[in-house]
Design a protein that fits this description.
The protein is α/β, with parallel strands linked by helices. It has helices at 3-18, 41-55, 60-67, 71-83, 108-111, 116-127, 142-153, 167-174, 201-205, 231-242, 281-289; strands at residues 58-59, 87-90, 93-96, 135-138, 160-164, 180-184, 188-190, 195-197, 212-215, 219-221, 225-228, 247-250, 262-265, 272-276, 294-297.
Length: 298
Amino acid sequence: MCDSSMERHVTTRATADSREPEGKVRRPGSSERESDFDLPIELRRQHIAAELASHGFRRVSELADGYAVSEVTIRADLSALVGRGLARRVRGGAVPSDDGMGGVERTFEQQLGDHADEKRAIARAAAGLVRPGQMVALDVGTTTTAVAQELATDASLSEVTVFTNGLTVAMELERAIPRLSVILSGGSLRPQQHSLVEPLAGVLLDRMHLDVAILGCTGVAADAGITNVNLPEAEMKRRIADAAGRLVVVADGSKLGAVSMAPVWRLDQVDLLLTGTSADPRAVEACREAGLDVEVVT
């Protein structure tokens, strides 16, 4: 082999060896050594679905760069998400699906009028579980906001501290300060639900013990457990529940029998489900047979 041919061979080999393996995440500003860890295909696809749910349109080129994989790999990921009903392909990238298992995430304001009387009844029952001096968590949603309204108007409650990642929850509780204390999680703002999600909340929750977490969801089913319409808030729910001694899920009757995109808890991880009279009795009974303590509030 002549010298010039050998030089071309060595250069080509070095270039190929320097490429990052498929499936490794390269964080902006990180060195090759810092980013050198494998990301399983399924986890990468969950992350991509979460990005679509949180931010809408994502370009194939941006995703390929962000996850340090080829555009061919990203197109395969997006095709898999389309097949699951979690994404829809558009020119140059993808957007969240308008239908399918995950469904459309409606805004907080769009949900305010849904089952309003039932949500108020559930909220009264949930607020009745809180005792003076306790540390309580409320996450985002119209039902948990109704719980915040009940806590704020209950003059018998004092020295209660409420941890929340919901801006609407915090605003409802503000009028009860200093009788109640309010701690916001911090994090990135999701305008759909006026919610705060990772990365900051986890740091705070690691240093905190909650007496009870009263959390919402978008699906409760005997076979699928507790599910939620978007991944970022599903992760926040899990982090909050991990810090709590008791987990109470509040869900109006329309959520019973429904399954949303993101799994949150198995039924045996929930201490109590509070729901309303519009719930399908068959779905309620199926959850009870699966071991979930269900209280139908009238």
